Amino acid sequence: MLSNEPIKSAWQSFAEKTMPQVPVNSPQYRHMKNAFFSGAFVVITIAEQIGNDEISEDRGVEILESIKQDVDSYIRDLKKRQVEKN
Fold first, then answer.
1. Is the dihedral of CA 50, 4, 68, 13 positive or negative?
2. Crossing angle of the two packed helices 57-85 and 27-50, in degrees rounded to 10
3. How confident is the model over 3-61, as pLDDT tens digits?
4. What value, to the nearest 5°, has the Cα angle with vertex 61 and ends 56 and 64?
5. Residue 15: how many CB atoms within 10 A of its CB?
6. Distance separating alpha carbons of residues 60 and 46, to the nearest angstrom
7. Beta carbons within 8 Å of 36's beta carbon, 6+ residues apart
8. Distance between CA 11 and CA 17 in Å, rounded?
9. Cα separation of 10 and 19, whole Å?
10. Helix ranges restricted to H, 1-86
11. What backbone torsions phi and psi does residue 7 show, to the nearest 5 degrees?
């Protein structure tokens, strides 16, 4: 079940898992948080555009599938780099 603040909740979970030792008031933490919320902003902006009457339902689905493919590709590359690093 999603929280009432799903992006904020996702950020907190992400930050705890990926940078537990980084102080909240550090530049690194602020930069990462800015990047995280900027990504969320992009997705919301795209979702709003998909909701416009000019975009058909089929085209909206294509756009969402494209976003999913972009993310899946990034995650695969990230995992590959992590394996190569270790």
1. positive
2. 150
3. 889 999 999 999 999 999 999 999 999 999 999 999 999 999 999 999 999 999 999 99
4. 125
5. 16
6. 10
7. 11, 14
8. 10
9. 14
10. 6-18, 27-50, 57-85
11. -70, -45
Amino acid identity for residue 38 in this structure = S
Structure tokens at 32: 């990462």
Q: Which residues neighbour 43 within 8 Å (Cβ) at sequence distance 6 or greater?
A: 67
Q: Please answer whether residues 27 and 21 qualify as being in contact, where contact means their C-beta atoms are separated by less than 8 angstroms.
A: no
The answer to whether 28 touches 19, Cβ cutoff 8 Å, is yes
Which pair of tokens denotes residue 82? 């992590």
Please identify which residue in the block is written with the tokens 């008031």.
25
Q: Is the pLDDT of residue 1 over 70?
A: no
Task: Tell the residue number behind the tokens 């990034």, with chain if given.
Answer: 74
The pTM (predicted TM-score) of the whole model is: 0.78
Cα 47 to Cα 64: distance, rounded to the nearest angstrom: 8
